[in-house]
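Running co-folding for beta-L-arabinofuranose.
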Amino acid sequence: MNKNTKPNTPLVSHIYTADPSAHVFEGKIYIYPSHDLDHDGPSNVNGDQYAMEDYHVLSLEDFNSPCIDHGEALHLKDIPWAKQQLWAPDAAYKNNTYYLFFPARDKDDIFRIGVATSSSPAGPFKAEESYIPGSFSIDPAVLVDDNEKAYCYFGGLWGGQLEKWQTGTYQHDAEGPAEDEPALGPIVAELSDDMLTFKETPQEISIVDEEGNPILAGDEERRFFEGPWVHKYNGYYYLSYSTGTAHRIAYAISENPKGPFVHKGNILNPVVGWTTHHSIVQFKENWYLFYHDCTLSDGVDHKRSVKYTEIKYNADGTIQTIDPYK
Ligand code: FUB
């Protein structure tokens, strides 16, 4: 338990946590982070240093309450199909069940997306025997829409392997598009009613500029890299994501959950550490950004800590950019 729930401060400091997906379940804020290992091994662009082996669920009664660590909710050894690297998860509630969606490398070293279930938002979660058929890459984020349709958004470049799926099958040596070609977008698939499979073939989302032109692969300030998140505000779908090499959380808006999404700007300026990853949730009247940085570890990229801060919308629906250190 950590008594410190001040904004822009690690929610917990007894373990390293990252990639927070926050939801309000049963009147409380539940946070589903990655659990970074405290190791001092080498780093590479493939992300092998992100060698996580389990998930812990955190919760807050409100922002005046301590953050509770509910302990281990799922371990790699209990996921029959997974070999390594439990990366950024998300959770959803439907059918009186809590679902944990998570990426991991399968026995062939290919990232897939799995699902596990629980009767409690805090877990423990029981993993399905196999990954979701037709799933690939990383960073699942699930939106259960007002009409109960559920959409799974996912995808990440480089170590997340999204470039390798441009033909619809895994191509080990495939690279991303040229700088003057449209960037790869995140992927979306509607989930089946039981939330355990995709109802349809996953499709790529288009992110365009205000003139309707696709954001190009060389446009590193705006192009999608990883960590998609979709929330709804005033009837519009907001897709937010990490730009990777430019280290920003950018966002784009659409009237349709599958896009195209029009790029609008940045929600979060760069944090300490290479990765940036977030979620957005409404709690009572206000909206909050959950994010991570590496200040607690003095800048070690794979030892991150989850934080939160409030976000503000302008009258036209745009979001004010946050500088995490001001
Ligand atoms: O935590 C491992 C990876 O780092 C996540 O899947 C990415 O979004 C990045 O935060």
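Result summary
The longest strand covers residues 16-25.
The chain has a mean pLDDT of 97.
Job closed.
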